[in-house]
Each structure stands twice: as structure tokens, then as C-alpha cells.
Amino acid sequence: MRLSFVLSFISIFIYSIYGFAQDYFVKEIEIQGLVSIPKEEFIYLLGVKENERFKVEDITKGIKRVFLKDIFEEIIVNYDAQSLKISIKEKPVVNSIEIKGNKHFPESFYIKILNFKEGDRLKESKLKASINLIKSKLYERGFINSDIKINKLIKDNFCRVEIYVEEGQPCKIREIKWEGDVDDYIINFFKLEPGDIFDQEAIKESIKKLKKSLEKEGYIGTEISYSFKNDSLTFSIKKGKILRIRLLGAESIEEKELKNIILAHLKEKIDENVIRDSVNSIISLYSERGFKNVNIIPLVESKDNEWEITYIVKEKHINFVEEIKISSKFSEEIKEILTNKEGQPINYNKLESDRRKIEEYLRAKGFYTAKVSPAELTEKNQKVRIFFDVQEGKQIRIKSIYIEKINEIKINEIKETKEILEKYTGKPFHEGIIIELKRVLRDFYLKNGYLYVNIEATYEIEEDSAKIFFKIDPGEKKYFGRSIILGNRKTKTKFIYQRLLPKENQPYNPYLLDQERQILYGTGLFSLIDIKNQIQDSNIDLIYNFEELPAGAIEFGVGYGEYERLKAFIDFSYINLFGMNKQIFSRFELNTLETRVYTTYIDPWIGRKLSFKSSLMFERANVKNIDTKEIIYKIKRYGLSTGFEKKFTDTFKTEILYELNYSKTWDVLPEVVISNQDIGEILTSGVKLSLIYDSRDNPFDPEKGILGGLTIKLTSKSIGSEINFLKSSFYINKYIKIAEGVILATSLRSGLAWLYDDTKELPISERYFLGGRDTIRGYPQNTVGPKRDNQPTGGNAFLMGNIELRNYLGKNLFLVNFLDFGNVWKRVGDVDPSDLKYTTGIGFRYKTPIGLIRVDYGHKLNRQKGESSGEIHFSIGHAF
Amino acid sequence: MLFSFISFSLGFSEEVVDRVIAYVDNYAITLKEFIVFSKKMKENFSDMQNEEILETMINRILLIKKAEEYFAGLPEEELINNYIELKIKSTIIISEDKVRNYYESNKDKFKNIPYISIREEIEKYLFEKELNKKLKEHIKELRESTEIKIIFIP
Fold first, then answer.
1. What CATH class does A700-876 carry?
2. In terms of CA atoms, which chain A residue is nearest residue B102?
3. Domain at A6-90, CATH class
4. Which chain B residue lies closest to A15 (C-alpha atoms)?
């Protein structure tokens, strides 16, 4: 009996490919035919350098490594007179796909079927598979005699793929027969006529829809099939039965909730088993809600076309936990971790898991032999007392930890291992601590390159102490090798290499790869990063496979604002300029009062957590007194800012920006003019420093965290400014979740401006104004503070605060109660915290995919004569 | 000289350090790998042709590539064996009837050896025969969805 040896050929060899000891000195490297990646990347992956020696096996490994890029067809490495000559042939790039000869289906139909696209490398296997895919799709659509041919036109590094489609004559339906439960509704559902093409895809889709529609009507177990013979199409339809569920006696749990549980069981078929399962599920739900001994009787009535199942529920009464008693000195701590709680309905299903929780808790405290008896229940007047009898036993502590065997580990690593273990001596012993110690040790060895570390642990218990023995086999120490970058189409490979941590030839540490993933995901460029290990003896090469996200986005919207009336915006963003994650954001806003355009360029990678930012801004606005509808002034402003942002931690950053602003103010109401610079042109040039702390969990709808900041801006004639001032603003917003669905949000904001040298007044465009939808909501926009002839003039200082209680009402709706206060003063010296305007109010928020829609009513608490009692505001997003 | 580097040189003075002779998707098979592998194969199967050796190398890569989807961090041989165990061997069942039928239809080969004495050997033979058949089919399937190109056979 001699066997075939296919298996033997494949698996009996243990071979090493590296049997050549010969080495070479290479003075220069010449590469021919390399088009798609930079020479530096190719040489890095090949693993050779000019003016260094290399072995043949390095080249073999290098060729294999570089081939993983999946762009090469041939690589030949020659050596001649200290020169390494590399000839390369790349797989051509498919630069166009053309569909020819198609009559029934458009080109897009065929392009969607293909398993390659423009920009991919040409692969014969894909072409072959595409032919089969097209044929089988056409067969499904009724074209059973199709013929497909593919022609490739290769020029330089590119290939044009021409696909010739001969669809052939379609298979047509001569007659349609209907069998079984057929009516006009069902026949019309298929929209089929004799003479139509036998399109199986359309037929299957109609069957799916029909089944769904019948399911909606309550039919369970509908069967629909079809056959096609001699051009005759026969449908066979067997309608399922209608299912009617009745619940009698279910008063404490909503009928809808119970029906959903029942339907989950009876969705596909109805028999004794599934009905029994549905009864058990209902009993289990009742038990969780504190009902003991609930009795459910299902009555099943099967008619020709109908199942009627009546569940008769006998609920009895609900029992509450009056007291939980645990005979342990840790009783109070233990109660915190139990599912059953005093004062709540008893959950009979969780009594056993509560018992186990007590045992586990005590064992974690070192009571190795702790035993807890099943709960003893005493019931009286719907109140239950639960008693857990605990036998704690002795508390055992770790006396000593021994390392039995260590192979090939460096002395400092042994020392560190011992240090790790010493920390655990004297701690309470439990089996969980062995797992924890093994994890800690495993982490330590993994971080030091021992990828295949094996740790075994045993222990001995004597009286009240435990000895733990570890046997550590670290396995071979592995080091990081080279990194191969794949899958990136728009992002430059160079950019990715710059983001990777310097780790080549360092001990292999999988945690570093997690850090790299975090950095790379943080760029916002990738939807998936897969890192695979390629073991090369003691080195491990890493294959990074990237899937990219779209880098550009356009958003636009139109809306209506209480002051601005009709408003619209359009946003452009692109976050992968030059394939280097440089970013540009642009926004254009237009409404009846304002036109604003700005563009920001950000390079987030100019240094360690250091970004460069530059913005250009244009604004034209008519500032209006909402009360009197008068235009207070008109302004046109151009701005430039440029500077750096440094992120110190995930929550703290600082910014330093140079700002240049040119503004022109005209048609200013005489009442608000307090300086010559309120009218006409003005140029400000200054430096702004900001410190920002942000620990909010969600910047658009925070539930917890703090947003705080301090900004100081200094303008000076020495750097081209026409006025001298120092402006400082401070803000702190705090968000606290005080209960489920209830958020307390508070905010305190202030701004102060000092003038120096010959500047006597701050121009109107730089002065502070308060009042309106985001500040003090009982007042119209910008109307709080100093006034002249009833027109707000603004001031050099302000102080304001807000307190909001945000309550979630369900279905994306929130109710908000708020208190706002604040004021504006002409000079910093005039600030008087006792002179504040207070408003309170109520508002609603509705959460939509584009943000919160907000409506607030603010009521003045210290209304002056002639003032309205309050204001209504419509807006988007929270006030702060 | 079967493995002469000179025969693959581009010029008379140039020496081929190594080159790609075939590939399976993005896994290259180089000339140097082939030389070492071929030498070892021929120690066991001296009449094996270079084409068969290269095909074997391709089949190995196909299985390793697939096995890496299921197992991580194992040497190549273990990867292949584990994969075959999981995907092929676990699906083979040799029934008692099959063993008995084989014995009955080849009785003349077994002469007077009683069924009970040869049963285990027949089962092993039939198992391996089925394994080889299934493995061939599986490799054929893998080949259909893989880009394989032989640039030249040394």
C-alpha cells in the first residue's frame, strides 16, 4: 500500500532558506525600473546600505520584505564591482476600465461587479474571477449564454482593461403558473408578465419582500418557491398562519414588553417547545422584577388559518427586600456589590449569584476557605429578609514568592522581576492574585521582547500563610525589525514612517504598537490599521496595513435665526494636504446682517505635539439694536492670525498667536460714539496668549468635565498697532452629572481691557457687549451695560455667570432651567459685582444629527422701567 | 550546473545575488530559497523535477498564508500541520464499511491475513488517501483565488 505523497511534500520539511554565508561589500546601489515608491523606502526595506557589507541572506530577506508591498512583478539583484544593481519590474496600474458590447445593462452595472478598480495593480487572478462574476450575474439576470473577453493594453507602467461583453439572448418567460394560496395581491406583488426576462434576482427580491409583508400582517411560516421549466415559470405559495397573542392577567408588566418576548420565540415556527420557552422567559422576567411563583398557562388554539395563543398570567404579589443580613464583619461593604438591594423588589434569579459574589469577595480578601450558605429567606407581608450565613475561616497572606527557574534572562531583568514580586509579599492570598501576578509578570516580559514567555505558578498553603512558586520560561528574545507600510493610497508612506516610534532593533514590545495605533488613528486619516508580525529569526518585521478614510468633507446648511433671519453656511475641509495630514478648513457664512469667510491652515506635526496655525478672515456686519431695530454701526473687518499651539496633555494646551486686524466702521449711531476711533479705519496688531484646559467628555453635549481658559492679548504701536491695549479674558465651565439624565452646567466668564500710553478709549469693535441667547437670556442681543440715549455703547469690562439644569425627558428632548447674571462696565475700575443683571428662564433642546436645536425664554428678575419682561431665543447648540 | 548563478546573470561579469522566480500574491519565492529547498527535497526524492519542487513551494505558501488567518506566532511547519488538522483531517471519517469493503475487494493482496490484523493499517491507508485527495482539492481551490506567477523555473 504505497501512498501518494502530496502531504509529505508540503509538510515534512523543516527547512531553512538561509544557507549562504557569502558576504559582499557594496559601495553604491543602482536601481532601475522603480516608479511607485521612493528609492529610500525601497533600500530601507531591502535592508542594505551603501558602504556597508551584506550577506546573501540579507538580500533574500530584503526581496521578500519589499515584495510584500504587492506592487512588484520581478526583482533581480546583481553584484558587480562593489556595485549592487537592482532591476525591477512593477505590476502595471489599471488606469482605465472600459466595457464594450453591452446592450441590456449599462457600463456602471458591470463596473460594480468587478473585483478590481482603477488605480489597482493588474492581477490575472482578479481578471479571471471578474469574468466568472460577470457571467454568473448575467445568468442570475436571465442571460444564460453570455460570453466575456478581456483585453489588456499595457504601456509603460499602466494598463487599460477592455472588457468585451456578449450578453446573448435572454431567457424569456412564456407562461406563469400559480399554485397554492394565491390572490391578486400576491400576483401583483411580482409584477411579472409572459414575455418578461427570467430575472431570478428580481424574483428573489420580490419573494423576500412578499414574505416580509406577510410577516407584518402576522403570518408565521410562509413558504414560497418557484421553478422554471420549458420557459414556464411556476410559483408555489403556502401562506403561514396568522398568529394572535392574548395576555390575560398581566397587570404589572406592560403588555407590549411581554408580547415582544413572546414574538422573539414564535417568529419562525410555532410548536410546543417554543411556546414552553416563551413561558419560561416571561416567568424569568417576572422573577427579576420581584414576583415569586408566577403561574402562566398558555392556551393554544390552532384553526385552519390561525394560531391563537392566550397566556393566562397569575402574577401573585411583588416582594420587596426588607433586610439583607450577612454574618461577616465586611457585611456593609459586601451589600454594595450585591444585585439585590434593601428596599427594592427582590430578584430571585440573582440570589445564587449574590451568594457567589460574597464568596469571591471574601476570597479576594484572603479568606481562602470562605464558604457562604445559600440564602435563607423569611417572607412576611410581601417583605423578605435575606440571610447569608458565612464561614470565613482564616485569612491567609502571601509569605514568600519564589522564582524557580529563569532561562536566558538578563541580570537586570531578574532584578526587576524580583522587585515586581516583592510588592505582593504580605498581601492577602487568593487564587485571583496568582492570575494577577502572572499577568504582571507576563506584561513585564512582553515589554522586554519575550513574546513567547511561558509562566507557570504553583502555591502551598501552611496555616495562615501562602508560598507562591513561579516557573518562567521566557523563550527567545525578539527584536523589532523593519516596518512595511501597505494600503495607503493618499497618505504618503514618509508621513506614516515619521509617526512610527523609533523602535528598530529594540526589544519587541506589543504595547508600543498600541501607542503607534493611537497616534495614527489620532491623525483622523485611517479607518483601520492592521499590524501583522513577520518573524525573521530574532527580528520581527511589522506589516502595517492601512484603510484610509475620506480626507475631504463639504457641509452646508440653511436656517433661520431670530436676529439674522435667513442664514446659510458652507464648510469645506481637507485633512490630508500633500498626503502629510496638513489641514485646511474653510467656512462661508451669510445672513441678512453678516457675511463672514474664514480659512484656517493647520500643520499638526511641526514638532512634538506642536502645531502651526494660520487663519485669514473677512467679515462684514451690520450690528443692530434688536429692541429698537436700529443699526448701531456697520463694520468691515479683515484679519490674519498666525502662531503655534502646544498640547501638553490630552486636556491642557496653550496657544500663542500674532493677530493683525484691519477694521472699518461707519454709519455709527451718534449716541454710541465715545471716541474718534469708533468711526473710520483702524489697524490693530498684537500678540495673544491662551491657556486652555478641556476635560469635557463631549464638547457638543458635555455630561462631565471642565472647560477653562485664560487669554491675554497685548497690542502695541511698536508692532504696528494704532491703539495700545491689554485685554484679558477668563472663563470656566463645569459640567456635573448629578443623576441619570440630569446635568448641572455652570459657567463663569469675565473680560477686562486696560488702555495704555496715548490710547484713551477702546474702539467699538473691541468693546464688550452682553445680553442675548448665549449670555444673559432675559435681554436682547448686546443690550446689557452702559447706554447713551438708550443705545448700548459697550464697555471695557464684563462679568457674567450661568447656571443650567439640563433634564433629559426622553425621545431626544431636554428641558432646561437656567439662571443667568452679569453686567458690562465702562472701565475696569467701575466693575461692581453687586451691580448685576439677573434673568431666569426655561428652555427646550431637541437633539438632531446636526446638533441641538434650542429654544429659551429668559425672564428679567430686575427689570427696569420700559424694559420688556423677557426674551425668547432660538438657536443651535448649548449656550455654553 | 543546475543552480549556477551565472546562468541567471544579466552580463558576464555580473553575479546574481538573488532574484524573484515566482510569487504567490505578495509572497516572493527567490532563487536562493529555491536552491536550498530543492537540495533538501532531492535528498528525499531524488527524481523530483524542478517544476514539481517549485509547485510544492507555492503550495506551502498557499497553506501558510491561509493558516496565518487561524494561528499566530507559530513556525511554518506547525502552521501547516495545524491548518491541515483543522481544515482537512477533522472532516475525514473512514467508516467501518469502507474499511471492510476495501479488505473484501483486495482480499487477494492480503492473502491469508485475517481482517482484524490488517484493519488498522487499511484504515490508516484509506485515511491518508482521502487526506491527499482533499488536500489536492483544497489547494486547487486556494489557487483559484490567488495571484500566482512563475517567472521562470530554474
1. mainly beta
2. A1
3. alpha beta
4. B37
Average pLDDT, chain A: 90
Give B-chain residues touching A13 at CB under 8 angstroms: 37, 40-41, 77
CA distance B72 to B83: 11
Query: Tell me, what's the pLDDT at A20?
Result: 59
Residue A673: which pLDDT band, with cuts at 50, 70 and 90?
A: confident
Cβ atoms of A841 and A861 within 8 Å: the answer is: no
Domain B6-150: which CATH class? mainly alpha
Kindly determine whether residue B146 and residue A125, on different chains, have CB atoms separated by under 8 Å. yes
- pLDDT classification of B12: cutoffs 50, 70, 90: very low
Is B153 in a helix, a strand, or coil?
A: coil
CA–CA dist A661, A138 (Å, integer):
65
**A56-67 vs A39-46: helix crossing angle, rounded to 10:** 130
Q: What type of residue is A81?
A: A
- Among A residues 521-580, those touching chain B with beta carbons less than 8 Å apart: 532-533, 535
What grid cell was written down for A137?
450575474
State how far the Cα of B45 lies from the Cα of B39, in Å rounded to an integer: 10
Which residues lie below 8 Å from residue A785, measured CB to CB, with a gap of 6+? A768, A769, A770, A771, A792, A793, A794, A795, A798, A823, A824, A825
CATH number of A320-391: 3.10.20.310
In this model, does residue A5 exceed pLDDT 70?
Answer: no
- Percent share of chain A, pLDDT over 70: 96
Q: At A262, which amino acid appears? A: I
Residue of B nearest to A17 (CA): B33
Q: How far apart are CA A825 and CA A786, in angstroms?
A: 6
Q: Give pLDDT, residue A589.
A: 94
Amino acid at A396: I
User: A686 by DSSP, 3-state: which?
Assistant: strand
Residue A77, pLDDT > 60, answer yes
Q: Chain A contact for B59, CB < 8 A?
A: yes
The position carrying cell 501583522 is A532
pLDDT, mean of residues A347-373? 92
Contacts of A124 in chain B (CB under 8 A): 147, 149
User: What long-range pairs does B10-14 form, CB within 8 A, spacing at least 24?
Assistant: B10/A76, B10/A78, B10/A85, B10/A87, B11/A78, B11/A80, B13/A80, B13/A81, B14/A78, B14/A79, B14/A80, B14/A85
Q: Does domain A93-166 have CATH number 3.50.50.60?
A: no
How many angstroms separate the CA of residue B74 from the nearest CA in chain A? Answer: 9
Residue pointed to by grid coordinates 497690542: A715
8 A C-beta contact, residue A677 and residue A723: yes
pLDDT of residue A15: 46
93-112 in chain B: CB under 8 A from chain A: none
What DSSP string runs through A629-641? --EEEEEEEEEEE
The reported pTM is 0.77
**Fold of domain A175-238:** Ubiquitin-like (UB roll) (3.10.20)
Q: Please indicate if any CB of chain B lies within 8 Å of the CB of A25.
A: no
Of the pLDDT bands very low, low, confident and very high (cuts 50, 70, 90), residue A821 is very high
B74 vs A286 pLDDT, higher one: A286
Distance CA A484, CA A783 (A): 62
Residues of chain A with CATH 3.10.20.310: 6-90, 93-166, 175-238, 241-314, 320-391, 397-473, 479-548
Q: Write out pLDDT tens, residues A546-562.
A: 999 999 999 998 887 77
Cell readout for A222 is 410562509
Cβ pair B41:A13 closer than 8 A: yes
Tens digit of each residue's pLDDT (9 = 90 or more) over A799-817: 999 999 999 998 899 999 9
Cα–Cα separations (whole angstroms), residue A744 to A397, A692, A805 = 46, 21, 5
ipTM of the complex: 0.86
